[in-house]
Every structure is written in structure tokens, then in C-alpha cells.
User: Fold this.
Amino acid sequence: MAQIIICAGISLIPYIRPVGAFQIANVLRRAGYTVQVIDQFPWIVHLGVDQILKLFDKFVGPETLWIGFSTNWFRRINRTHSGNTGRVELVEKTHEDFVNNTRVFTLEEVDIVKNFVYSKNPNVKFVAGGARSFIGRTGDLKPLIDVYVEGYGDIEALKLTKWLEDPSYSDISFSQNEDGSLGLRSEPKAEGFDFQNFKFTWAPEDLVNSGEALPMEIARGCIFNCAFCSYPLNGRKKLDYLKDPMILKEQFEENYERFGTQHYFFLDDTFNDSPQKLEILYEQVFSKLKFKIGFSAFMRLDLFHAHPHTIDLMKEMGVDGAQFGIESLNYDANKTIGKGISRDRIRDTLVKIKNSWGDAIVDSQFIIGLPNEDEASIRSWIEELMEPDYPLDFVKIDALFLNRSSKETKTWQSQFELNPEKFGYTFPTSNPMAWVNNRGFSQADAFRLKREYEGNNKEGLVKKKDKMAWVIYHGHKNIGVSTRALDLKKQGKVDTITSLDYQTRLEFVKTYIQRLLEL
Assistant:
């Protein structure tokens, strides 16, 4: 039995844990509550609603206060076949799909689940958190959710728990949503939570596997303020919200001693945001460890151009993967969003990185539809990216997401969303997401180009050379795909995602369910 149950999971076949749910569990456990995270939730539902009922039967009891859903990475999983690959398709095309992929349960399954839970404890509340919880304002997840937690949950989840335990608890404020559910909105910057000095620990009931590649929060916030980004901790100062280096060192050592973990995906919006930060981390953490680690993280390419000595420093720290947000090779487009680096300098800096980092997996995301872009310019840089000798291993291209109604429906807005006209965006139809940029290039054009260049690659990646994205590679290892099979994928002899991988993930999930039931 647990007082709080948090359902979480990333729907991709490769398995990496979503750190947010486990962070909230850490906070609540520190306050004395019993918490069980049910990871891989979309996959468990995919196996059948009876599987989640088994787990709720195990963990729901008279003392259970709430069941949460960490919505960030939820997608319903539909198995369809493309040739002989048996890829898992992730469906998200319309607002209805967005809602269904956030709720995960069908409406029929919602009734089954809620009736079952209420038969064990009629006072349990159902709570939604994560990046999609803003849709509670319009009642989109009814009848499943009772309370929506918007923004950082470190403080609000604890307040909610105290209130459910004792209704006289007064340090909490709710808003009322259209469907009668409650909204709990955190202070945008979550300044009341001491992230820097909070040590994260994996609990035994989290069931971390031996050698598992794990996520780790290094810092929160970003010193930049890109025009398309709605993140609330943008514009912070250097070294703000950086976790204490001694605590990070303790976490690395603890994970190595307990699980043998040496590979990490760092959660840090811009890991290389300042040379000072990298030097502190190297001198106080990485150089002090008695074992080597490998890691991947989100980074800014223009900062390596500005501070070239940090390229080799990153190699010394153990980098074996990087995810850049270059966004475009069009200099005029990049200038409008706050990333002023020319096309030639982008390529030259990537070459220096590849020469220094050797086998590290280097990939980048790009946005179709930025200001000052038309179809000809976009095709030009996409074609350049796809050249065999272009120094990126993977490329992911996405259509710009812009919603003119976000002022009423979202907690956080980007500069684009707050003032689209300033950047040349118009909305000629009643669809609040159907933008047209200042060169006459539309959202429909962006989706058309995205589909054209991605082709049949359902992972949304333009594959380059003989490598896999870092998350895909280590995520496959986490579910037990053999090194031999991974080598075949890297060599292009086997598809990145196959029907065998699907079956391997299903067996992995079934084993996880059994381990949960045995706790």
C-alpha cells in the first residue's frame, strides 16, 4: 500500500526513466509519505487495463490519498506494421488525439479504473501534472482528473498531499476549472524549493536495474531567452539553480556503488551555458570520481564557437553524446530567435567537435517555419544537413508550434506566443494554431515538408552515417537489446525500431509489473 501513487513513463520503445515523477517521489518521501512510482505506464495500459488494476489492487488502500499522472511523455501506443518492422506508432495529429494521448485510458477504461479504485478507497483523488496539465483549464481530461498541478510540482505536490491528509491545511490556493476540477498553479520559478541543495536518491521500490543508464538533473533554468521558448526559468544568471557539486558527486558515487551506473542523460537546459560552470563541474565532480562516466546533454553550439577551449574540456568530462538546438542554418532566421551564428560557423564548429569527441553521438533539432524562412531556404539547409559528410549524426526536424490562444490556456508563454505580430506571424483562419510567417510560409507547408523529408522514418529522425541517437542506443540497452543487435542497427543492416524490439520491450514491461507485484 502507498499513500501516493504516481504513474509515469516515456512511450518510446527505448527505455529511459522520466525524472520528474521520481523527483516528486523524493520530495514526498523526504516528508515522511510512502510513494510508489509506476513507471512505463503507457506500456502497462497497452498490455490491458487489467494490468493496471492488478497494480492498483496492490498499492491502493485506506491510507491512499491520491493517484497522479505525470503527463509529459504520455502517448497511447498503437502497434501497426510498416513492411516487416512492426513499428510502434505514436499518434498525435489533432486536439482530440492530444487529449487521448494525455489521458492514455479510453473513456470506458476510465470508468473501470475509477470504479475499481473507489471500491478500495472512495476518497482517492486523481491528479494530473507535467507539461500538459494546462488542458485541465478547459476540462479536457474529464472525467478522469480531479486536480491539475501546473508548473513545478516540488512544492505544490507536497501542499496538495498535506491538504488531502488534513482539509484544515490552509497554505494552498486552488482555481476552479470549467468541469469542476481544481487547478493548483505553482509559482512560475518555484523559488521556494531549494533545488541546489536537494540530494536525489533512487529508492529500492524504484527498481533500478543493474548498469541502467539514468537521468540526472544537473541544473534548472537557462541563461538565454529564445523567442520561441516558453520555459519559465529563462533569463536566469550564470550558476543559478546549479546543483551543489558535492551533492552531484555523491549522487554519481551512490549510483555507481548501488547499480554500477556509468551512463547518464543530464537534465539541464543548456549544459554548456558558461565556461565557469563547466570548469567547476570538472574540477569538483568529474575529475574527483574514481570511475569514468559517459553522458549526453542539451547544449548550445554557438557557445562552443565562442569558447572553443570548452570543446576539449567536455571530452575530459566524459561526453559521449550531445543534443543541440541549432534550429536553422538560415542566419536571418536564427538572429530573430536569439541564436546568431552563421551557416559556415555552424559547420566549422561541428567539425571541431567531431574531431575532439571521436565516437560521441552528435545530433540536433531544427524548426521549420521560423521568421525570414521560405520554402526554398528551408529546403536548402535541409538538403545540406542530409549530405553524407555533414558533421551531424542525427537530425530531427519539427514544424513550429504556435498557439495564439495560449494566453488563456497556458501558464507559460514564449515571446512568439505573447506577440506573434512582432515576429511577422498571422493567423488567417479560425484555427488558433494555423500560423503564416512573414515570408508566406504556413503551418501546413511546415507539416508537408516534415513528412516529405522524414519519409517512412517513424522515429522522426533523418538517419546519418552508422550511428543511433544517444537516447535510442542506451534506451535499447536498458531493455536488454544485445550489443550485437545494436551494432547491426548502427550499421544500417537492421531498422532502428523493429518488431523484435517491440516484443523485447513488452517482455521488459511484463517483468517490471511482476517485480512491482512482488514488492
Observations:
- The first helix runs from residue 19 to 30.
